[in-house]
Amino acid sequence: MDTQIRGDMFIGADAVAGTAGELHAIDPASGQTLDPVYRGATRDQLDRACALADDAFDSYRETAPDVRAAFLEAIADNIMALGDALIERAMAETGLPRPRLEGERGRTCGQLKLFAQVVRDGRHLDVRIDPALPDRQPQPRPDLRLRKIAIGPVAVFGASNFPLAFSVAGGDTASALAAGCPVVAKAHPAHPGTSELVGRAVRDAVAGAGLPEGVFSLVMDTGYEIGGALVTDPRIKAVGFTGSRRGGLALWRMAQDRPEPIPFYGEMSSINPVLLLPEALGARADAIARGFVQSLALGAGQFCTNPGLVLALAGEPLDRFVSTAAEALSALPAATMLTPGIADAYRAGVAAIAKSDAVETVARGQEGHAHSCQAALFVTDAPRFLAEHALQDEIFGAASLVVRCADLHEMRAVIDALEGQLTAAIHMDAGDHDAARTLLPRLERRVGRILVNGFGTGVEVAHAMVHGGPFPATSDPRTTSVGSLAIDRFLRPVAYQDLPDDLLAPALKEANPLGIERLVDGKRG
Amino acid sequence: MDTQIRGDMFIGADAVAGTAGELHAIDPASGQTLDPVYRGATRDQLDRACALADDAFDSYRETAPDVRAAFLEAIADNIMALGDALIERAMAETGLPRPRLEGERGRTCGQLKLFAQVVRDGRHLDVRIDPALPDRQPQPRPDLRLRKIAIGPVAVFGASNFPLAFSVAGGDTASALAAGCPVVAKAHPAHPGTSELVGRAVRDAVAGAGLPEGVFSLVMDTGYEIGGALVTDPRIKAVGFTGSRRGGLALWRMAQDRPEPIPFYGEMSSINPVLLLPEALGARADAIARGFVQSLALGAGQFCTNPGLVLALAGEPLDRFVSTAAEALSALPAATMLTPGIADAYRAGVAAIAKSDAVETVARGQEGHAHSCQAALFVTDAPRFLAEHALQDEIFGAASLVVRCADLHEMRAVIDALEGQLTAAIHMDAGDHDAARTLLPRLERRVGRILVNGFGTGVEVAHAMVHGGPFPATSDPRTTSVGSLAIDRFLRPVAYQDLPDDLLAPALKEANPLGIERLVDGKRG
């Protein structure tokens, strides 16, 4: 693989530099500017990327499953073949440590391979066949066949906090490509070099598979213009986004205000409540506290599933939890954050909550350099939490708020007052099951994933994963951005009535040449 | 069954009259006002309906499959038990003939029974289990289980043109109830008596099944206030709507502008292109023309899938098609339309297109009374069609426009210029397959159902049906409002990680007590 970093975008097969504005990556550990310079795409370059994607769509969406699956696997192979050049550039651009990025690379490639398997299995096509009933009275039934087809070219916005797994060839791109959608990715400006390397790996996989070049493009943007133009381009039919609530809602609104509104999948913010039920807290306050601080500090707290809120009943066990957590947190070294902007926002968020009369600061981590995260732990009680909605605002980083509840009734009131979340964790022992049973239905309404005796950080890429949740955790509660179900976001159903067999797609032909699972007359056939 | 018509709504179990404004049904055949008077719901009554729905939600969504299925079947039984009282009232309120309404009643009950079977099969729950891998390196995998749960209370807006199948207990209500969502239905003001009768049938089924009363409410509205308040009520989590584009887009916008935007499923307008390919047209121009006029005139053209646009190559066969169609259409008696307002809108639409320099009027049906539909057939050519976007506007009723295309290339250009549609029909013979092959990918982008040698009217309620399509045919191209897949609109996925078996829902328990289809470790188990 070519591991040169040149300042390129990819408009289809063409490696080109933009000309609109300038952009440099910054090493957040040192504050140093990294070469090379990147330049934003022009409107013409974006237009060409969208035109190529549209041209490629009808051909790419009908690629044979083996061809498409091999293409996804080739992307993974090409990413691995970038070797240390990729890891080192990502470290420099994000401040994230090597083991984390190596793990994330494994996750990214595993994700591509999972979707290759999904494509081969063909279950996502949801094929249904209701055979003709020519003798039915009073009217014959026609032959009806349904499959899901790709929705169209997809725009993907790379996230800052997972420069590989939620970026250029991350989950949104992998699931969109698996669905049969060409992708126009917009690189996150915090890691343009990482994006260029991965973008080239995808582009080379497109060429290697003999696919039309428009299957993938990567554009840079030095501001917000190209991102907005991408979302509003009439050839784009869906958007995947992971990032801030403000950015996500702005793009979501643009997607809705188009002459043809399109599905927008934004994963935007979450404080991920952790419930400490009485028996578990009484038995294991110290251990849970240490696990909590470890989860909170992971990656400088820059996880969508970071435990930003703890709910428990007031009393000695909770005091013990708080004091153990405070002790562990106080010892936490400051960790470099992804970008100076994120570090600034974290500081401002912590300062704002610390000033609130509704909370007390019980611990701060070690201080560090200007772009690092000094962990923070705050405590309040349920009435004050319920009275001050701003206490629900996500502080992206290693900050969390403990809410003392008088009883389970009050804990439930806090849950009911929460906005939509990605995850909720419950720490429980056998004696807590009755309490859990009453809280679970309320949690189900609020979150996409409920986990027991653990923390939400660490999102398994699996068939049964949901990384999603009610608004505003995401803009579409019907979906997940992680796991094989993520492919559903980029599909729509089409029915074919009495279409001759030779005109049917392979998935629908009578002989089932793909050998995929189908529902025939309401039964598995 | 109680077949009295009293002017009631149903707020949960309570049969009550509204107090906000007055509403009478009108017999469109005679223009006579029908008793009794209906009054619109107050904001308080609506608030109570939504509160009851929210209260019922957690319990109703966890009902055992057999209980929920039997409830759906009981609704169907109760509707049948209304007997002729229902048919006669629906005839008086809509002007639709008895056989059509009896057929529609059968469809409505069949739909409820289909969803009962869907609930028993449990496939819609999309259960996935990735068992724990405690020894996996470098990290163990937790136990992960996914199911889809009901999205929340659903608002359903009854349509005017199917007083049974797309109204109070129509497809939206049936699929929402099947998903586990309480329903607050808003009656269409054109058929309040029919709505009251069906509403009572549903309410009695709720009581008979021992379900919480909030599972179903029916409200009346004399204007737009209650409909708007229903869509913006924070307890409502999704909306089903079938109606005009103007009404649909207004409600869609309200659903997006809520503090918590919600899924809005609007089925809004479609002109359903019919492609006549050369071989078929040459061989069967007359027969296709007669079938076309029959489909066009069905129910006074008041079908969402009415063939409002015909595309064919200019030439003698098309001339023959037009002249046969003109002859058949000229003989069509005027048919009573659903409401005076719909008849006025039809007249205005026909007058507007007839005045356009871009089209010529080739035939009109027989004239009739003030609220009837006088069929109309217009002809234009592709360049003029492409130049005048308003020619794509749906005229709700038995009006259609033939577009002469110079060649298949021009036909394809017309297809590409179309807005999203519910259906496209292709008339073809063996010699047309190559042409069809080039057009199919373009049609797939534009429509939800493609049918061959038939017309879109007649929408089978089946597993493989799609009654949906790209915007603006519907507000959500990922969905269908007819067929078993319609249930997916009212579900969202939730993942459970390491939740003890006794706290898992039956669908997820290790022993699979429901005996439903599940995906275990990526394989059918």
From TrEMBL, chains A, B:
Signal peptide from the UniProt entry? none
Stretches assigned to the Aldehyde dehydrogenase domain: 21-469
InterPro entries the UniProt entry points to? Ald_DH/histidinol_DH, Ald_DH_C, Ald_DH_N, Aldehyde_DH_dom, Aldehyde_DH_Superfamily, ALDH_KGSADH
Q: Which GO terms describe its molecular function?
A: aldehyde dehydrogenase (NADP+) activity
This protein's superkingdom? Bacteria
- EC number(s) on file: 1.2.1.4
Q: What is this protein called?
A: NADP-dependent aldehyde dehydrogenase
Annotated source species: Sphingomonas jejuensis
